Amino acid sequence: IGKSFSVLQKRLKKHSKMNILHSPTLTSELSNSNLFLDTNAIKGLLNIQEMLTLFKVELECSFTTIPSVVFEFTRGSETPGVFNERREFIDRLGNVYPIEKHLEELQELIIVLQRLGGNASYTDFLLTACLHQFRNSFLLTEDHKDFPLEILDRKHLITVDTGKEIRNYGIYQWSISKFDKAADNILKRKPPF
Fold this sequence. Notes:
With about 190 residues, this protein is an alpha/beta fold. It has helices at about 5-10, 25-30, 40-45, 50-60, 65-75, 80-95, 105-115, 120-135, 175-185, and strands at about 20, 35, 60-65, 95, 140, 150-160, 165-175. It has a seven-stranded mixed β-sheet.
């Protein structure tokens, strides 16, 4: 991933020995998949080399994020140089998809998510919208409470034991059947027959 990755990793790295635990089906289910990344997932990939190797090298996943995640990841940069390093790291990881341009098409999703409640941020809403738009993609996040299982499937949990702390990442995917059920209840849709 280049020079900026190694500079950032040295600056932010806090752990030396990692143990990553995951389901044996992770490889077959996620190989060559697209993963949308939440801010905490990008930080995890930066700080935990083994996690980056797992997804990028072993599973050959592609990465996508959204502009508000880029904002969150670069927020707090002490200098323009640090900002540029962080932005370059994201650019080298993968793509930035402008989901905000498609909000007009997502009225039902917006209503359903608003009614499901929770404390999801605007960024979390947009990441959920990405899963709605790209239904074969997955989301990698540590924010388990912000992504409603009423409309998503949690496909996998990945536990990272750093030796000092344990981090749990979830891999989520859109569920058409769950969303249809939730939308029917919330929007009071009637079956077509």
